[in-house]
Structures are given as structure tokens and as C-alpha cells.
Design goal:
The chain is of the alpha/beta class. It folds into two domains: 132 residues, OmpA-like domain (60s Ribosomal Protein L30, Chain: A); 134 residues, 60s Ribosomal Protein L30, Chain: A (2-Layer Sandwich), CATH 3.30.1330.60. 37% of the residues lie in helices and 18% in strands. The strands form two sheets. It has a four-stranded mixed sheet, sandwiched between helices. A four-stranded mixed sheet has the order 5-8-6-7. Helix 9 links the parallel strand 6 and strand 7. The longest helix has 21 residues. InterPro entries: Bact_OuterMem_StrucFunc (IPR050330), OmpA-like (IPR006665), OmpA-like_sf (IPR036737). This is OmpA family protein. Pfam families: OmpA (PF00691). Keywords: Membrane, Signal.
Length: 284
């Protein structure tokens, strides 16, 4: 019951604005319909064979005890539900019923309170059924990727980027060598073109591969301007401009938080190792 209560609270406001509703009414202390109300329900059934029922709610007037009225409203719901099923009206797989008894906003006219309300979606709106109900698709659970340093993969000496990617598994980080930026800028120098062409080629040859471009800088205590992230974004822009879908390229800037060598670096070789761009393979 708790599950249904949550379901109902979530979608009830949408019933008013996005769905159809139809009511039938009952005599005092009765859970079966009069001849007139049966005819009204049958006409609705005939015209709604292709509609889909998503919920049924039952109500009573305030006469009698709460326990009695709760039971009565549930019997009314069951009665209508059985008629709908018997007449092959479509019903959602997770169809729910709800009995309110007298615990609802009562009309001054008691006859208007003794009712069952059917909530349904018209055939023309069935393509938008989940949208109308406010049901979002369940996002797949993606296992957390454990980073693997390039050194730990023991790639063959002089292996190309393509060869490394072929041997790599999710989590593998690969340094993209010879990508150069202007000083204190995310502008990429023309000498970076061969390395970028190689990366573009690898992405095209592996159309399902998703990567994270990771930017790193050197020589300073902090990446105050977030330059490492801006450079990673610039690489993504170049990839996207050459036909690689943006959703395949995540970006992250690590600043100076993941240096290969302690800062300040002892020499230019160490600075170059710290000032790098890596890709981490998220999935292949």
C-alpha cells in the first residue's frame, strides 16, 4: 500500500492537467451501480476500448463510520475494476486502485461524494504515456571506473595511440604527447595538429568508445584560472569539430593536484611530464 500511496501522490497533480477522468455515482451504502449509471459506464467502455486506464479511486459520503466507508469505497472500486477487466479495456501493467472512504473534500451534495473516478489516457496520447505520468526512464547504473596509470599497463615500447587503445581496458589513462598550448592560454599551438589528428582517427575507428580528457598544468601552486579544465575543453571542441559526438568526450581539469613530479619541478623534463594531457578510457 505504501508503494501505491507514493505513486498516487506523485502523479495525482498530473491527472488534472494531462489526463482524462470519468466518474460514476452510487446510491447510499451501495457498491453496485444503478441501471442508469451502468448504462453511462457501458457507453464509456464502448468509446474507450483503445484508451488505457491508469488508476481508479473510490469515495463515499460522510454517513456511517470511517471503517465502514473505507470498506464501502474499496468495494466500489473493485466493482468498477472488475467490469473494466471483463470488457477488455486496456489497463497499465502497474495499474493502481485507491479507496478514500469519506476522507476527501466533501461536496455539499452527498450524491456527488458517492462515486468512483476512472483516470485514463486517450489513444492519441499513449505515445506520451510515461511523460504524462511523470515517469522518467531508469538511468543505467554505470560501474565506477578504477583509474589505471599508463605505466601499469606496460604497453610495448613505441606503441602508437591506436595500439595502446586496442590493448587498454576501461580506466586506462594514456598520455597524449605533443599537444602544446600557448603560455597561460587554452589556445592550441599548430604543432599539436599531428597528435590531434591521431586522436581524432582513433576516436573514429572506435565509434563506441567514451573518454575523459584530463588536463594538468605545472610550475604553480594552484590552478587559479582553471586553465587545465579550459585546455581539456579545447581538445573536446576540436574533436567535436571533427565529427566526434560531444557525449563521447568528458572533460576534467586536475590543475596541479596529480603531478608526476613534486612541484616546483627540478627541471624542464619534469615540468613537461606534469604539464600534460591524458585521456582516460571510460568505456569501449
Amino acid at each position: 500500500m505504501k508503494r501505491f500511496l507514493l505513486f498516487f501522490v506523485l502523479i495525482f497533480p498530473l491527472f488534472i492537467s494531462a489526463q482524462e477522468q470519468f466518474s460514476v455515482y452510487f446510491e447510499t451504502n451501495k457498491h453496485e451501480l444503478t441501471k442508469k449509471q451502468t448504462e453511462i459506464l457501458n457507453n464509456w467502455i464502448i468509446t474507450n476500448k483503445e484508451s488505457k486506464v491508469v488508476a481508479i479511486s473510490g469515495f463515499t459520503d460522510e454517513d456511517g463510520t470511517n471503517v465502514h466507508n473505507d470498506s464501502l469505497s474499496q468495494r466500489r472500486v473493485n466493482f468498477i475494476h472488475n467490469l473494466i477487466v471483463k470488457n477488455n479495456v486496456k489497463i497499465r501493467d502497474d495499474f493502481k486502485t485507491r479507496s478514500f472512504g469519506e476522507t476527501h473534500n466533501q461536496s455539499r451534495n452527498k450524491a456527488e461524494n458517492r462515486k468512483v473516478v476512472i483516470y485514463y489516457i486517450l489513444p492519441k496520447d499513449l505515445a506520451r504515456e510515461n511523460e504524462i505520468l511523470g515517469i522518467k526512464p531508469v538511468e543505467p547504473v554505470v560501474a565506477e571506473v578504477v583509474p589505471i596509470e599508463e605505466e601499469d599497463m606496460h604497453f610495448p615500447a613505441n606503441a602508437t595511440l591506436e595500439e595502446k587503445v586496442a590493448l587498454a581496458k576501461p580506466g586506462t589513462k594514456i598520455v597524449i604527447k605533443n599537444i602544446f598550448f600557448y603560455q597561460n592560454s587554452f589556445g592550441m599551438m599548430p604543432t599539436s595538429k599531428p597528435a590531434m589528428d591521431e586522436l581524432i582517427d582513433v576516436m573514429m575507428k572506435n565509434p563506441t568508445m567514451v573518454i575523459e580528457v584530463q588536463g594538468h598544468i605545472c610550475c604553480v601552486k594552484a590552478d587559479a584560472r582553471n586553465l587545465s579544465l579550459d585546455r581539456a575543453k579545447q581538445i573536446r571542441r576540436v574533436l567535436e569539430g571533427n565529427g566526434v559526438a560531444q557525449k563521447r568526450v568528458k572533460v576534467k581539469g586536475f590543475g596541479v593536484s596529480h603531478p608526476k613530479y613534486p612541484i616546483p619541478e627540478a627541471n624542464e623534463e619534469q615540468a613537461l611530464a606534469n604539464r600534460r594531457v591524458e585521456i582516460m578510457i571510460l568505456s569501449k
